[in-house]
Structures are given as C-alpha cells and as structure tokens.
Amino acid sequence: MIRRGLRAAARLGHHGALPGGPYILPRFSLASAFGSSMDSLVSRFCQEKTDLKNYALPNASWCPDMLNLYHEFLEKTKADGWIRLPSFKSNRNHIQGLKFPLVLTVSSDKSDCHIFTRCIKTEGQGYEYVIFFHPSKKKSVCLFQPGPYLEGPRGFAHGGSLAAMIDETFSKTAYLAGDGLFTLNLNTRFKNLIRMGSLAVLNVGVEKVEDQKLYISCVAQSTDQQTVYAKASGTFLQLQLEEDSSQY
Amino acid sequence: MIRRGLRAAARLGHHGALPGGPYILPRFSLASAFGSSMDSLVSRFCQEKTDLKNYALPNASWCPDMLNLYHEFLEKTKADGWIRLPSFKSNRNHIQGLKFPLVLTVSSDKSDCHIFTRCIKTEGQGYEYVIFFHPSKKKSVCLFQPGPYLEGPRGFAHGGSLAAMIDETFSKTAYLAGDGLFTLNLNTRFKNLIRMGSLAVLNVGVEKVEDQKLYISCVAQSTDQQTVYAKASGTFLQLQLEEDSSQY
C-alpha cells in the first residue's frame, strides 16, 4: 500500500506540480499512507462549539422543501446513522489542533477569513445549505438553496455556484470518509438550471479509494427527483494531518 | 448546419434534460442555428453605462502584480485588438434589450440580484477580477485575485471559487465569441493552491465550435508562469437571443 502510494506520488509530481512553485500540493509522505480512523475524524469535526456560530441551522429564509427535508434527515440522525455536520465560519475551526504541512503554512493570517460557501452573511442572500453525512455508507446529502447573490442567468443560480457547492460537499465527504484533503479534479455536467430560492438536493457518495485518492460522485436534483440539475465526479488526494503538539 | 444543430438538440433532449422538469435547458430552435455577429454581441455587451458601476476597475485592494498586468493589457486595447470587458452587478445589465426563451423567464425578479462573482461588496474581500477579450483570436485573459472570503484550505483560495471564476470567464468568452449561453460541462484539474490575495492569470481560448457547442479551455497560472494552478475545459450551448420588441 505504501509503495503504491509512493508510485502515485511520483506520478503526481511528474504530471501535476511544476517545479519551483512555492505553493505546490504536498508530495505524499509515509505518514499520509496511514488513514485516520473515521470516528476520530468525525468526532473532531463535529465537536460541540459553544462559542462558534453554526451556519447549518434553519433560518427564516429556508423554503418549505428545505425545512421539511432537513427535519426528515434530522430524524434519521436518531436511528439511521446519519450525522448532521456543523458548519463554522472557516475550515480552521473544524480541524483545530491539527498541523498542516510546512509548505501549506501561512506566515500571516490575521485577516477575517471565511470559507467561500459562507462568504455572504445575510440569511437567504447567498449559500444556504446543510450537509448530512453517513459514515458507514460513505455518503452525504447536501440540501442547497441558492439565494439572489448567486445569480448566473437571470433568475437562476450561477453554474459556478453549484460547482463550488458540489466541491465543498465533496471535500467534507472526502475528509471525513478517509482524509481526503485536496481536490485534484472536479467535473460537472449541467443538465438543468436551478431557480433562485428553490431547493437542490445533492446526493454524494465515495465510489472508491485507490492509490491514496478518493473518487466521489454527485447527482444534484430537485426535491421530487424529477429534475436532474447536474451530475459530477471528483478526485481527492488523501493526506493525514498530524496533531499539532505546539498547541498544548 | 441547421440539420446538424437539430440532431444535437435531439441528443441533448435525450441524454440531458429529464421530461417534466420545469426549468429544462431550452431545446434548439431554428433561430438559434444562426449566429449573431461578434461585433454586435461585443458592442451591446460593452456599451457605455454611466449609471451602472463597473466592478472591473482597479481599486486599492489590487496587488502590484494585478495592477501591472492590468495596465499592460490596457495598452494592448489601444493597438492589439484586446477589449476590456466591463462587469456590472448582474448579467441582465449586459444583455438589456434581449429576450430570454419563455421557459427561462422568471415571474418575479424583484429581489436584489448579484452575479455570483460580484456577490461580495467590500473591495478585496471576495472576487477581484477583470477580463480582457480578443474577438478575432477568440481568447480571453482574466486577472483574478481571491480575497479572504473565498477561503478553502487555511490561507488559500477554495477550489470552488476558482472553478466558478473559470466558469464565469468561460461564459463571457463563449457568449461574445459565438452566442454560447449555457455551461453544459466544466472540468477542472487542480494543480496548485492559490495563496489568498495573490494573482492568478486565466488564459482562456475557444478550441472549436461544433454542433452548436463551443469547446473552451483554460490554463490558470501565476504571473511568472512558473506555477500552474489549474487546467480546465468547458462546453457551452449556443443560443441566440432575440431582440425584445416589448421594450420599445
């Protein structure tokens, strides 16, 4: 497994990252060939934070379809093994206590950073979404309601806003299902436009894990499953983050 | 050409859009098989608007690399055939006087809509970008500086924010180069992360036009061209919009 991982690393080094770039995706290390336990990933990610706002909770802008499906999945968290993922302002809030590779550390990060999909503060204007994750099935469902600040064609969501929502759901799924940390590829085939303020349901699943890569797929569709908005596939690079002992 | 267009339409109807969906991408019409002249598309798109804010102008948040390259391309607009594209709050400002197909009209659009890539109002916080377009070469260059509200990994731009920026540059290029109006496919291969606040240069070109589809490619790289951030390809559906006589 380690040797296969190293071969994959060499391929990435050859095809992917140009020499000399200061922000190159990290090469595989031996450490990254061992996966974290899913339980530890999930429990760290979902830990109770009383001081941080969780943006994945219902608000007055959510349409009835979104509220109904939210409560349906909330019921499934009680018996069917689904987990409602919290959503904080920044990814750094989700992975506190873990260390990034040196090549990815930033010298100064004093600015007020927001994860892209929580960049618009006013409720209902931008991204409204909540992700439910099923650890043993390695599946996620994202309920996504695009607001008027995500416009593309008049009255409809921008294709890029949907691609970004898919990427974000992929990335959370890839991380929790197996240390998937970086998007290597994202391919989205658009089928129908999403009307602003309506609900799109993103059904996401890990298809396979091979050569330290996770292969993930998505079907985004309407609540009644009669309209497919997009189909997508993505590949994520696994990288296990180490505990940051300097924080203790 | 028309017959080939209709065959493509049938394929799209078969593979793409499910029956019954209320917001299905429009089928091809005979009208859409005739292209608009590029001159008329460009002149309508770029018309002087004294009452609308143009977001594609330099501001205090632009980094030196972005400012330098902006002025370099500005020089090229005087002699080399490049055009600086204005960027208004909504796509509807760019295509005023044109009529959308009935299936894409919205009954109520009173909300304060923003094109997704101009969704964050504070300068430097979100998307800073300007697109230059070369009509005869069918190429575009987008200067893109991601701000701290586009974060993905700590200190770096979210992959979805880059995918959306590529989609937006593709869509403007596809529209002006030949009535390309809807993204059918967007495939992005990520190579390196973009550090927040630094410049990514998106080099975009139309590869071919076939069966009423435009095939477009992109290489996103650093100013010194030493680091490739992403390579992408996209397919756009051509659809010629008719003049909206009701507005006169």
UniProtKB/TrEMBL annotation, chains A, B:
Biological process per Gene Ontology, one example term: cardiolipin acyl-chain remodeling
One Pfam family, short name: 4HBT
This protein's GO CC annotations: mitochondrial matrix
Superkingdom: Eukaryota
Positions in coiled-coil regions: none
InterPro entries given in the database record: HotDog_dom_sf, Thioestr_dom
Domain Thioesterase: 155-227
Gene Ontology molecular function, alphabetical: long-chain fatty acyl-CoA hydrolase activity
SUPFAM superfamilies xref list: Thioesterase/thiol ester dehydrase-isomerase (SSF54637)
PANTHER family: ACYL-COENZYME A THIOESTERASE THEM5 (PTHR47362)
Protein name (record): Thioesterase superfamily member 5
Gene transcribed to yield this protein: THEM5
